[in-house]
């Protein structure tokens, strides 16, 4: 199974649209969501594109939420007010993903590197 760690740094930086629905323009996703959680969102986009089962989707969503919480806690460095604010944003975003993510998840067999990028990984 293809994993996030199998991607190059460039592939990770360019994968998916970041945070928000695919139909949002990039400037809007950066303004609304991506200013803080962009790396977590791109990793989640990868998990959705790679595909799998309903349980894979649930695990991907929980991992996404945990990554956003980690980001919030590390970035706020003990500022309780900012931490609670970012954790609340993460919770709302997680609930939106759980509610509407089924529209974008690629259910079925796991995709390969060639499926996602059009060529096989070297190495």
How would you characterize this protein structure?
This protein has 123 residues and is mainly alpha-helical. The protein has one domain. The protein has five helices and no strands. It has helices at residues 9-14, 26-50, 54-76, 80-100, 113-117. Helix 3 runs antiparallel to helix 4 (80-100). The longest helix has 25 residues, at 26-50. The model has no long low-confidence stretch (mean pLDDT 87).
Let me know the average pLDDT. 87
Low-confidence stretches: none
The portion of residues assigned to helices is 55-70%
The tally of structural domains comes to 1
Strands, count: 0
Secondary-structure-based class equals mainly alpha
The helix/strand series, from N terminus to C terminus, equals HHHHH
Spatial shape: globular
Describe how the helices and strands are arranged.
Blueprint: H1 9-14, H2 26-50, H3 54-76, H4 80-100, H5 113-117
């Amino acid at each position: 199974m293809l994993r996030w760690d199998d991607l190059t740094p460039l592939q990770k930086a360019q994968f998916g649209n970041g945070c928000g629905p695919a139909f949002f323009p990039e400037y809007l996703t950066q303004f609304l969501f991506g200013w803080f959680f962009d790396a977590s969102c791109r990793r989640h986009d990868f998990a959705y594109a790679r595909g799998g089962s309903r349980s894979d989707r649930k695990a991907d969503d929980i991992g996404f939420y945990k990554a956003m919480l980690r980001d919030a806690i590390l970035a706020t460095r003990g500022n309780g007010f900012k931490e609670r604010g970012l954790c609340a944003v993460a919770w709302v975003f997680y609930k939106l993903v759980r509610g509407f993510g089924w529209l974008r998840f690629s259910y079925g067999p796991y995709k390969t590197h060639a499926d996602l990028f059009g060529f096989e990984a070297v190495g």
